[in-house]
Design goal:
The protein is of the alpha+beta class. It has 15 helices and 12 strands. Among the domains are: about 1-115 and about 125-135 and about 340-360, BirA Bifunctional Protein, domain 2; about 185-230, no CATH class. Helix 5 crosses helix 13 (about 270-285), helix 7 packs antiparallel against helix 8 and helix 12 (about 250-260) runs antiparallel to helix 13.
Length: about 350
């Protein structure tokens, strides 16, 4: 097992390589404002953050990652275009897996550039692949933007599309909603009786919670409207199911997704971006013919990404978390930009896990 000095030495070496690629070194504070950033993290990270209270600064948290603090820093004071690198400790609770460390070092690389998003995607991925060269790892890629485009373009109500988007990161809940909206499954038990009642509030049930009667009535009316909404069509449902099951090498995945676009034409712009990314990856020397693409990849752990996503995994060590992950987060710059925005992509690596995989391979 690598010791702390070895991990820090590897992190420093990796950061120097990113500096050579044009990145500026940044070092966000260990304590971050929880009220600003906590809601932007995905459910997984949010539940594992260490939060404390400060009499002057309000709620603070030990940084659970670097990306959000770097985005916030760039949107408040960064020039364009910009490339950043960093290395340092992050902190996450590990209550469900006490064998995993709750403090470890991340090394990262972030790109803020309007010029050519596909080229920036390829730049980040190829630099990560170079940092990891020689390790027995499997690379996986995906694109959250294809699925979000498919959902947002469905021929159904905005309310239903919003519900699906809220649960995009929870595959089981998403599947349940999709089946219900397609008429394949009934609604929750007791809902029909409630909606059929002439005066639902007259039903003898206790009033629990802080909602006023007017809010409850509005919710019931919304549920009635949803009940009367025609189901999502079979061809759209089949298209979504086919999309979610695409798992191939990049060129073949693109070919399959082009077929899906016959029934879901709203995904065509996202597929054009994927095609440009494939060409950029090839131009940077990545063997896309052997690079896996999974249309559903990243749905359970990458909530602030909204486009290209990737990860590197030790197939011989399924007990290890990803050795590296990353992706595109354009929407995050809008949320932290106070009206400004810029295309952005980046990722993080775990030098401790890299050293562990190296030891296993010896």
């Amino acid at each position: 097992m690598a010791n702390r000095s070895q991990i820090q030495a590897r992190a420093a070496m990796m950061r120097v390589r990113f500096e050579a690629a044009g990145a500026q070194v940044v070092d966000p504070p260990l304590l971050q404002p929880a009220d600003t950033l906590l809601d932007l993290y995905g459910e997984d990270i949010r539940a594992r953050a260490y939060v404390t209270s400060d009499a002057l600064r309000g709620e603070q948290m030990l940084r659970p990652d670097f990306t959000l603090p770097v985005v916030q820093m760039h949107m408040s004071e960064g020039a364009e275009p910009a490339r950043y690198t960093y290395s340092g400790e992050v902190f996450r609770r590990q209550e469900h897996d006490p064998d995993r460390s709750n403090e470890y070092i991340q090394v990262g690389y972030e790109v803020f550039d309007r010029n050519d998003p596909a080229w920036a995607d390829a730049e980040v991925f190829s630099l990560f692949a170079l940092q990891l060269r020689g390790l027995p790892l499997r690379a996986a890629t995906g694109d959250i933007g294809i699925l979000t485009a498919a959902v947002q373009g469905l021929r159904t109500t905005d309310r239903r599309k919003d519900a699906l988007m809220r649960h995009l990161w929870r595959p089981r809940r998403f599947r349940t909603l999709l089946d219900r909206f397609a008429g394949r499954k009934p609604g929750p038990e007791g809902r029909d009786a409630l909606l059929e009642a002439k005066d639902p509030l007259a039903i003898d049930v206790p009033m629990i919670g802080k909602r006023r009667a007017s809010e409850i009535e509005a919710r019931i009316e919304a549920l009635r409207e949803d009940r009367d909404t025609p189901p999502i069509s079979d061809y759209e449902l089949v298209g979504l199911e086919t999309l979610l099951n695409v798992r191939e090498t990049m060129p073949f995945a693109l070919e399959q997704l082009r077929d899906v676009a016959v029934d879901l034409p709203q995904i065509t712009p996202a597929l054009d971006r994927l095609e440009a990314r494939v060409a950029s990856l090839q131009a940077r020397g990545v063997d896309v013919e052997r690079l896996d693409f999974e249309a559903a990849y990243g749905r359970t752990s990458m909530e602030y990404y909204d486009g290209f996503v990737f990860g590197f995994y030790a197939e011989g060590r399924p007990d290890l978390p990803p050795i590296a992950t990353g992706g595109r987060y354009d929407a995050l710059t809008r949320q932290l930009g106070n009206g400004a925005e810029i295309p952005a992509v980046g990722g993080v690596l775990r030098p401790d896990l890299m050293l562990e995989v190296e030891e296993d391979a010896q």
